[in-house]
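Hi support team,

I've been running sequence recovery on a batch of backbones for a student project. Most finish fine, but this one hangs at about 90% for roughly twenty minutes before it completes. I'm not sure whether the input is malformed or the queue is just slow. I've pasted the structure tokens below so you can try to reproduce it. Let me know if you need the job ID as well.

Thanks,
M.K.
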């Protein structure tokens, strides 16, 4: 349904530096599939989502690549046509609902505006549908909540409003960017279960952006691990959790606590993600990798397919692997 091919999104800074936020990534999403995009802050996850939605603004620019949905090249469509696709075919739940929702308009007016614009509903019909949507996402007193403002709601309620807005036009693809950030654990589980249920009800595909591998293990069919603006490992959730290959993926999994293990100290990955305008020469993980070799500091490895549907960007797997960057 969605095919992203060799996508590059760069930011051109005032001091002539170029931040390669997304640098040559490719992936597909099948109908009704849940794909997780995992990585630390600064790895390029959100910029990938915004690129798909065509919401990159100056100083950012989609430099090259293809984004195809249902055989339509999204990078070639006019802004007015993309505005129609955005909401009808693809919708996004943004990371911070308090900044994504307009503080000076009521909840009801913000949802009904989408319905009137995309579905051509009358004001009365849009209001009725808004009540139905709010009820669908588990908001009590829907008719009263319609007349309230974002600041009057809790974080969990605001996130439910964002989900109601996203599913209002029954999109084929829902992008959820860290949908449970800053919510307590109980509310996180409720929001994720709600999204999974709505995905089944509306036959949507889901691109779930997260840094929480526990969430990935429960909800995703496939996982893409991002680091330094590139996908460094991509495979099924089961393979990734049971047989991780890339040193970065291994480090992420080693940092998770396990109830059945007596561990005094969790694993950690030394250092931090380098800024997108100052990646190291060679492999972008080389400055933090415990397995670094001389070649790693000289050139960036390709994305090798080491077995069916398991791709790794690492020189440890060059021999016998098929390079998909060529």
């Amino acid at each position: 349904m969605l095919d992203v091919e060799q996508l590059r999104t760069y930011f051109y800074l005032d001091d002539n530096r170029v931040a390669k936020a997304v640098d040559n990534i490719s992936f597909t999403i099948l109908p009704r599939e849940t794909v997780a995009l995992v990585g630390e802050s600064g790895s390029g996850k959100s910029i990938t989502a915004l690129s798909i939605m065509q919401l990159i603004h100056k100083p950012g620019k989609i430099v090259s690549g293809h984004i195809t949905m249902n055989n339509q090249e999204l990078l070639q469509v006019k802004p007015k046509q993309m505005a129609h696709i955005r909401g009808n075919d693809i919708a996004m739940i943004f990371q911070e609902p308090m900044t994504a929702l307009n503080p000076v308009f009521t909840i009801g007016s913000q949802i009904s505006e989408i319905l009137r614009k995309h579905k051509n509903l009358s004001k009365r019909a849009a209001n009725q549908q808004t009540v139905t949507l709010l009820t669908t996402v588990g908001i009590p007193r829907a008719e009263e909540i319609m007349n309230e403002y974002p600041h009057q709601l809790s974080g969990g309620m605001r996130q439910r409003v964002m989900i109601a807005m996203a599913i209002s036009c029954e999109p084929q693809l829902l992008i959820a960017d860290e949908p449970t950030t800053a919510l307590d654990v109980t509310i996180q589980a409720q929001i994720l279960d709600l999204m999974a249920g709505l995905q089944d009800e509306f036959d949507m595909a889901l691109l779930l952006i997260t840094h929480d591998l526990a969430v990935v293990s429960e909800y995703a069919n496939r996982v893409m691990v991002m680091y330094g603006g590139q996908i460094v490992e991509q495979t099924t959730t089961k393979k990734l959790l049971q047989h991780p290959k890339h040193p970065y993926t291994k480090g992420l999994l080693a940092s998770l606590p396990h109830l059945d293990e007596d561990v005094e100290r969790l694993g950690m990955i030394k250092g931090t993600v380098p800024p997108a305008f100052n990646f190291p020469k060679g492999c972008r993980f080389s400055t933090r990798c415990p397995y670094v070799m001389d070649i790693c500091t000289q050139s960036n490895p390709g994305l090798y397919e080491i077995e069916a549907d398991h791709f790794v960007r690492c020189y440890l797997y060059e021999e016998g692997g098929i390079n998909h960057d060529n």
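--
Follow-up from support: It reproduced on our side and the slowdown came from queue contention, not your input. The longest strand covers residues 18-29. No action needed from you.
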